[in-house]
Structure formats: structure tokens, C-alpha cells
Fructose-bisphosphate aldolase
Amino acid sequence: MSIEQLAETAQAMVAAGKGIIAIDESNATIAKRFAGVGIENSEENRRAYRELLLGTPKLGDYISGAILFDETIRQSTKAGVPFTKLMIDNGIIPGIKVDKGPQPLAGCPGEVVTEGLDGLRDRLAEYYKLGARFAKWRAVINIGDDIPSGTCIEANSHALARYAALCQEQGLVPMVEPEVIMDGSHDIDTCFEVTEVVLRSLFGSLYEHNVVLEGTILKASMVLPGTHSGEKASVEEVAAATLQVLKSTVPATLPGIVFLSGGQSDEDATAHLNAMNLAGPHPWPLSFSYGRAMQSAALKLWSQDLVNNVAKAQQTVFARARDNGLAALGQWQS
Ligand code: 13P
């Protein structure tokens, strides 16, 4: 796989006015989302829900790629069309979550490290054959009393860099996601400082592992006050703080940055992205890779009638894609 091909995929992922839909919930995570709206977590319901999302008419107008879970990349529509074919036919690049989730980091209470490196080379080769052209690995950084530690940040950066190098070796664009978690009572300045240290560490590790930045996408968290801080930051403050930390840590050779929504409201996630792009141009396209902020309204509608609400739910997915696609251009109006 040439660097040019990786770079081409990475650029297509952040094409103007387009972003990513994250539908890569593990079975344990989708169980929580389904339970929240009273849907049984059966394999058929998971399949039907992912068919609803991926089958949204004209989704490719605003969505460049979708991140799938291992089960989903092997599934098909009710009519028997593999999801990967449905996606490619609609101009949507198949992506795959390849980490095995965060586990407690021994010796570091309250902190986690993402696992999944063992056997990753073979898994990536299989996913490539199944049609995936990019992958995702999420590291989780918690903020609390005396955390994150340097040990936790380093362990997660090291894992992200090893994953990214393996992805590029196997022809997949690595999406590297160091998520600084919103939960906590920390203020926005603390989130800024932690995000800065985390991103510096990550790009240092990527460099040490010879990861080609031109074929890499960063999935970043925004700089926000902790959910339990009692602090409310304005849209402009969040946009300015996030831009400042990215500009001071992310090399300009990176083809693009996409954001996670992380529990923000749909409206906030869109407004923050729009405000950042209004303040452009920036060294990289800034777009979205939202999970909950793309799906939650549709999931709620679908849960009310799994048979008859499919089209209505798809209209909601399309509307969220359009709003976020416009925000990726700084053209969204609330
Ligand atoms: P949220 O947008 O719901 O945070 O999910 C994005 C994601 O893929 C987290 O890894």
C-alpha cells in the first residue's frame, strides 16, 4: 500500500462539507443505548438498526465514512446486500473499530489503557479484505484528583502509535482518538492543559513509530468544562480553546481533524464545530465523527415503532448529517 493511497483515503474522509458517522458501538455499548429507549438487544435488532442508519437515502451527500463494529462489518441488509457494498455504492468509506476497549491500568487507580494490540496485524488484514479502508482506536483519558498521570498518557500514546503503524502497514488509514473525558468537576482550563499534554505525547509517539501523518486522521475531543463543574462555557469560548490547543500541538501535515461528540447535546456539537470553522481557515479541515450526536434523535424515533418509523428515523439521520456537514464548512444556521 502506497503512502499516496493512504493520503487519498484520508483526504476523502475529510472532504469539504462531509464527515463521519460513528456506529461502532460494541455489543455492550449498544445494549446501553437500546436499554435507554426500551429496545431489546438482539442480533437482529442491531442489524436492523445499522441497516436503518446506513440505508439513509442520500447519506453520502454529507457523510464520507462510517465506523463499524466487528459484528456489523460482516452483516448485510435484509435483502442480502453486504453493508460494505451498500456503503461503497453510496460513496461512504467503510471504517472499523479495532480496539478492544479500555481496561484498568495496573498501578494507576482510576485510569485505563486501551487493549487490543495482540493479533492486530491479522485482524487488520482481514478487515481490509472485508472492505475497510480506515480504522479507529480510542484511548480514554479521565480527569480527576491527581489524574491523568504521565504513565497513563504515555501508555495510551504508545498503544495508539503501535496501532497506527500497523494500520498503515496493512493499508488502512488510522484514526487516532485520544478522548479526554467530559465527566468530572474540572474546569475548562484543566481540560485545556490535559488535552495539550495528551496531544503532545500522542504526536511524539506517532513520530517515534514512523507513522506517516499524511495518512492519519486525528479524532479529537473538544475543550470543555467538566460535566459536574457547574461551569458553562459559551460556544465561542469552547471553539477558541479547542482551536488554540489544536494549533499548538497538531502538525499542519495532518490531512484532517474530526471531533467526537462525547455526550454533548446535538445542538452543542454542531454549534461548536460551526464556530470553529467560522474562525477559519485553519491548517487542516475540521469535521465530525459523531456517534451519539448523529444517532440519538433517530434511535428515539425508531424505538417508538421499529417497523413503521424507519423512514422517519432516516430523515432525522439525514438532517443531522446535513447540519454537521454545513457546520464543517461554517455554514450552519441554528
Ligand atoms: P460520540 O460522538 O458518541 O462520543 O462517539 C464517537 C466515538 O466514536 C467515540 O469513540
Observations:
- The two ends are 43 Å apart (CA to CA).
- The pocket of 1,3-dihydroxyacetonephosphate is lined by residues 22, 24, 138, 177, 260-262, 290-293 (CB under 6 Å).
- The mean pLDDT is 98.
- The longest strand covers residues 134-141.
